[in-house]
Write a structure and sequence with these properties.
heterodimer; A: 412 residues; mainly alpha; two-stranded antiparallel sheet; 15 helices; B: 177 residues; alpha+beta; 4-stranded antiparallel sheet; 9 strands
């Protein structure tokens, strides 16, 4: 009967409209995918984890002192190198070159600083377990700042005494201490010091690291276009037009066929772990073992969580339950955050790849590792897939936020 | 778990090669060459199988929703029933402390046990990123396990091997993060 047909047809039409509408309201994402999208948004990050090993970690006076120290080139052998030499604020706190350059050339790509305080291990091989312990490494590296802890303690006494003493108490008299010492090439001068002098100097050195860490804790990522898309989607607001269809297709590949979220998950797009992805070594550098060495090094580190220099040596879960000596650590490197990734070519632990496209092609090809086993497998992505993935990665660019104030992204 | 994956990868490749061999009715020289190749492949598969599984996917199938949760859950040989207690919802990328409450089949608390922890993602073929341990026996059959971290969302197996006077047995929890 025509009337019945009409009713049925109307019902079908209404149902179709409802279903289509429901889907388009969700951007074509399933409930599980929407949950995963929310887990990737910056709003899922949560507060900065406390650092009990550094009692001035959240003291604004320490952050102010740390900021000055971060940009002070007198904390170096030749007076030309500061943390900010490689970690440049107008370049997302990195330097844009394959291998970092201080007093000499390092063997590693300079890492960005933003949100590093969320990571339990620092450096590409995770050989440090706090921001303050990390900051001390380059200060005594011959190819970075190249100076000595004795020299740095003297700088503090001469130029930062008031600010330093307000935070850490009175400085010991260092006038009788020779300027050298505390560095491999001057080990003799260092060992010639009285043990109490060595201890006092090292204490000042450690506090330099703790002040710098307090500053670095205030360097964060601001929301990107991707975050605006997820927030609009989650909040039931208009979200079309925030990302292009290619960028959304890239995001779907990122979460699906390309397997990226296996490591690049959570609001910082990193699981904070270490993986061998078969990235070729630089032929001019010695073949290193990555996390295999880093895990052993952090346990033995003079400045680790358990050390006498830590403000909470009894609470070191990351060291207590650390995986060491496992073959999967061989040439495994830290999974970096992908936030602002488009702004900081070249890529990988020694700047092996010049462009995002080269990185994606590496993951697609999945070559064998030079040592150990790659965790990758060929993805069989098309050129269109790679282009879309790259388009998506570019949506992760946002401002860098320092002390609550946004700096625009590097390339804009 | 790893051994099984290695075998399954190896077997698949062996079968494929055997098929080829049967078709060709090979000469002695060809048969020897094929055997050498077959051995090489088997060796490679056993060495790299678990790594290939990590991103390739292992073919492990996610259990039914009813198999997920904090328990109570019975051990493989029915010696124990264990329940996980958490301070809040389990979340990825956070170091967490759990409690395991253990009773026997009659519901009596099991004290004096030692616990060993293992686990991983069956679909990805990797273990946990930390090495969790039992750190304290709290009494009344309850034990504290520290150093638990899951490095991504999805299906995780959390295996508690319980060793007491009753014997050793393993409870496997399926956790959805």
């Amino acid at each position: 009967m025509p009337a019945t047909r009409l009713v049925v047809a109307t019902a079908v039409l209404l149902a179709t409209v409802t279903v289509t509408g429901a889907v388009s309201d969700q951007g074509g994402w399933t409930a599980t995918q929407r949950d995963e999208l929310r887990s990737l948004a910056l709003s899922a990050l949560g507060p900065l984890p406390p650092d009990p090993t550094n009692r001035v970690a959240d003291d604004p006076r320490a952050a102010q002192l740390g900021e000055r120290l971060f940009f002070d080139t007198r904390l170096s052998a030749d007076g030309k190198v500061a943390c900010g030499t490689c970690h440049q604020p107008d370049r997302d706190f990195q330097d844009g070159i394959a291998l970092g350059r201080g007093a000499g050339v390092t063997a590693r790509r300079t890492m960005p600083v933003a949100a590093a305080a969320h990571s339990p291990f620092l450096f590409w091989d995770g050989r440090k377990d706090s921001l303050w312990a990390q900051a001390l490494g380059p200060l005594e590296s011959a190819v970075e700042h190249g100076g000595t802890r004795t020299q740095y303690a003297r700088e503090i006494a001469e130029r930062y005494r008031t600010e330093y003493e307000a935070l850490f108490g009175p400085l010991l008299d260092l006038s009788a201490v020779p300027a050298a010492g505390g560095f491999d090439s001057q080990a003799g001068a260092w060992l010639a010091l009285h043990p109490e002098q060595r201890q006092a100097i090292t204490g000042v050195f450690v506090n330099i690291g703790k002040a710098i860490a307090a500053y670095e804790r205030r360097i964060e990522f601001g929301p990107s276009r991707f975050d605006r898309y997820v927030e609009a989607l989650a909040g039931g607001r208009r979200f079309d037009g925030i990302l292009t269809s290619d960028e959304i297709a890239g995001l779907k590949l990122f979460m699906g066929k390309a397997n990226c979220t296996q490591c690049h998950n959570g609001p910082l797009f990193t699981n904070n772990e270490f993986h061998n992805t078969g990235v070729p070594p630089r032929p001019e550098l010695p073949l290193d073992d990555g996390r295999l060495t880093g895990a052993a090094a952090v346990l033995a580190d003079e400045f680790n969580c358990r050390s006498r220099w830590s403000d909470a040596p009894g609470k070191c879960a990351e060291l207590d339950y650390l995986v060491t000596g496992d073959h999967v650590l061989q040439r495994a490197y830290k999974v970096p955050s992908l936030r602002n990734v488009a702004e900081r070519a070249p890529y990988m632990n020694a700047g092996q790849f010049g462009t995002l496209r080269e990185v994606l092609e590496h993951y697609n090809r999945a070559p064998a590792a030079a040592k150990g086993h790659t965790e990758l497998r060929s993805l069989r992505l098309t050129r269109t897939d790679l282009r879309r993935l790259e388009a998506f990665l570019r949506t992760l660019t946002g401002p860098i936020v320092v002390n609550g104030a946004a700096r625009p992204p590097a390339s804009r | 778990m790893k051994t099984l994956q290695r075998n399954s990868t190896g077997n698949a490749q062996l079968k494929y090669l055997m098929k080829g061999l049967q078709r060709k009715a090979p000469s002695r020289a060809r048969r020897a060459a094929s055997l050498a190749l077959l051995i090489a492949v088997a060796v490679m598969a056993s060495a790299c199988g678990h790594v290939m599984a990590m991103i390739h996917g292992t073919g492990a199938r996610r259990p039914a929703a009813t198999e997920f949760g904090l328990g109570p859950r019975t051990s493989a040989n029915q010696l124990y029933v264990a329940t996980l207690e958490t301070a809040g919802p389990l979340r990825p990328r956070r170091m967490q402390t759990l409690r395991v409450a253990i009773v026997d089949e009659a519901g009596r608390a099991v004290d004096g046990a030692t616990l060993a922890i293992d686990g991983g993602m069956p679909q990805h073929g990797h273990r946990m990123p930390t090495r969790p341990r039992m750190t304290r026996a709290l009494g009344a059959g309850t034990y504290e396990v520290e150093g638990v971290r899951f490095n991504m969302g999805g299906w995780w197996e959390f295996k508690v091997t319980i060793n007491s006077e009753r014997g050793a047995d393993t409870v496997t929890f399926n956790l959805g993060l």
